[in-house]
Amino acid sequence: EALRIEGEVDLGYLREQVPRALERALEGLARVTTIVRSMKTFAHPDQPELADCDLVQNLEATLTIASSELKYVADVHTDFRPLPLVRAHMGELNQVFLNIIVNAAHAISDRHGPHGARGTITVSTRIEGGDVVVSVADDGTGIPESVRNRIFDPFFTTKEVGRGTGQGLALSRTVVERHGGSITFDSQTGVGTTFHIRLPVLGPMQLEEHAQAA
Fold first, then answer.
1. Is 120:74 a contact under the CB 8 Å cutoff?
2. Nearest in space to 182 (alpha carbons), one of 145, 124, 131, 136
């Protein structure tokens, strides 16, 4: 009876396929876990008080959230140097990181076309004195020299209607400056652009208090 049932259910096939199916299910579960964890990190509830934030952890979460914008146009490389915790409103900074990374993907798509060659986005971190610096580099279209002094202006955009509102970079600069930092860029037309987000480790208010005490 056992031999008959074994023949009916094709036990050899099940022995071969079931482990593979379980492995794929576990891989899918791990991916869902990563996405949910990233969403929870990215959607960090803003609080009135500044809090100690792990920028590298939040950059990793932001890249996961932005993966649908990135996966068809660019390979992402990271160079995350160890950073101290930064006093900040993390939810606001996550939006800044997302704006810059998505803009990089759009610049690459504009250069190569939606079905063209893949570009490269490199996200890196470093410490400079009492500041941390987050850099996002792309090999997209670059920013034309004629508009470089306007890209942080509210409602200014070089994107077609429906793709950009002209608010992303303006809001990003406002957020970064409110944290006592700065946002700058280096760009070469046809080669690419690198944005640099500089933030004081001590946070804006603590930085001022520290300077007064000194």
1. yes
2. 131
Of 114, 134, 126, which is closest to residue 176 (Cα–Cα)?
134
Task: Say if strands 131-138 and 86-88 run parallel, antiparallel, or are unpaired.
Answer: unpaired
CB 98, CB 67: distance < 8 Å: no
Instruction: Please tell me what DSSP assigns to residue 185.
Output: E
Mean pLDDT, to the nearest integer, of 158-168?
A: 61
CA distance 37 to 42: 9
Span 70-129, pLDDT tens digits? 988 999 999 999 999 999 988 889 999 999 999 999 999 988 776 678 899 999 999 999
> What is the pTM (predicted TM-score) of this model?
0.73
Neighbours of 196 (CB within 10 A): 19
The DSSP secondary structure of 115-160, one letter per residue, reads TS--EEEEEEEEEETTEEEEEEEE-SS---GGGTTTTTSTT---SP
Asked if residue 60 lies in contact with residue 28, where contact means CB atoms within 8 angstroms, the answer is: no
The answer to whether the Cα torsion of 138, 45, 38, 110 is positive or negative is negative
Instruction: Give backbone dihedrals phi and psi of 210, rounded to 5 degrees, phi first.
Output: -65, -40
> What CA dihedral angle connects 26, 43, 208 and 131, to 10 degrees?
40
Helix ranges, the chain (H): 2-9, 11-42, 55-65, 67-70, 90-112, 168-178, 204-213
